[in-house]
Amino acid sequence: MNLKQPTAVFIYDILVIPLSWFLAYLLRYNFEVPSLQLLQAGYIFGVLFPIQMVFYFYFGLYRGIWRFASVPDLIRIVKAVVLAAIFAMILLYAFTSPHKFLRSVFILYSLLNIGFLGGARLLYRCLKEHTNLRIAHKRVLIVGAGNAGEGLARDLLRAKAMHCFPVAFLDDDRHKQKKEIHGISVVGKCSDLLAVVKQYSIDLIIIAIPSLRSQDMQRIVSLCMEAKIPFKTLPNISEITGGIIRASDVREVALEDLLGREQVAIDWKEIEVRASGSVALVSGGGGSIGSELCRQIAKLNAELKLLVVIERSEYNLYRLQQEITEHFPHLNFVCYLGSITDKALVDRVFNLHRPDVVFHAAAYKHVPLLELQVYNAVHNNIWGTKVLAEVSLAYGVKKFVLVSTDKAVRPTNVMGATKRAAEIVCQNFNRLGKTKFVTVRFGNVLGSSGSVIPLFKEQLTLGKPLTLTHPEITRFFMTIPEAAQLILEACAISEGGEIFVLDMGEPVKISYLAEQLIKLSGKKLGVDANIVYTGLRPGEKLYEELFYPEEEVIHTRHPKILQAKSSLVSPFDSSGLESLMLEENEAKLRDWLKMTVPEFRENVVNIPPVYQDNFVTH
Description:
Rossmann fold; 3 domains; nine-stranded mixed β-sheet; seven-stranded mixed β-sheet; 20 helices
């Protein structure tokens, strides 16, 4: 028995045995038990009692806590009582005459004992939950009556410390209307939110649909904002520990929830099969995408032989090392501090570990900064890719995956041009050996180190206006985990030479992000926070593209991965590049970049004329 279980529980369960037994006799004889039968009842009870106590302990009636009594506890009670009765009857049959006891009494005893034991536990739970309702401070409306909503309601009913209790559900499923979950009614659809909030005096709204599409999330959040009461949500189901919903998982609605709620269906079994016994190397493993790739790859640790990381930032590498060591202690993991442009280092790493697949995520990505840093952009993004590709080819790497960007399509800035050149490098190297070179192209990722979101949050915290370059500027967005998972999937389905483009959905106005962030922070646009438009920066596009006009868009077997196929592969001539880098002549390197990437058009700003002189300050 659990020594922490109150003594009263143990005493109650002991007393229930004679109470149930003698009450069974009273019921059997209509409360007029003959004295002879009463003596017999006492004799049989002496046999039954120790057997019943043994089965109590054997089936763990004292493992559960009465406050959380549930179906598994009831099943344990039924097993303990019924098997004890059967075992006692077998002993009596073996050592006494069958005519000396009544089998119907054992049936009545079992029913009564189960009723007393199970009923007391469930009654105690109901009383505790009722007490919680009386002391709670917040009346909660749960949006979503699915598994997540049910789990949340169940945990809120028992989580006394939350000082919250659910009073109603909303769900768009017509089959759930007017149904009850844990005694809580589904009172309407999501569109009824405003009326329900008023009718039930709601203090807090919790959106409990982890797989909600971004458009539906935006609609529900808009209604919550209109209701003018606090609202929260549950994270994506993949982020919830063990997939079990708890009240502690509830958090504030983040901007990412409005843009990236779609679940990514990944064929993990295929990825696991391909990863079996392999060595994976991630360049730029300390960056936003690189570190997430490491996390996703680390989940395959049972199949993975080794994870190798190369990162030039000491701090980022230290953080990654601490995280991997803590969360994946059994993973074979090794990291190297250095740059992919250091061929001696790269060669030594490949010679030691012989990677099977390389994920090349190392790159400089800050557009305005790189406009004035042509040498560093070319050296890291192009030369570094070339070094990594050459060594991969030399050591027989099976697959090489380049992480590219939508800015590589018809680039108007140095950063985009260098990433396009990196794509060309990989396409050309794919022809030179057995290594399969693959490119994965996608847009902005929410929450990355180069994302605009951290800047907006910092400006809001400091009470400064949010700075945007143009009211009509749009970008494609996806979450970091979604991007990393799709990169792994693209690697799994690739045959070599492809440029895969991740389906980014519809582009989003940056002004919309700024406005939503202001609202989510509880402030009002134009009152507590302002938006200031400063004009497009050098090399910055009004909108980004994912495909070249001449590229054919081909659907793959994964609905969120497309292939950009071109009839021609641009040549890559690196002759003279090394000498140009030794000179560190920015002008000559810029000219070389224009020659290598003919689509590169400097200072071409794709702004519709109507907006050119229309920068408005809110």
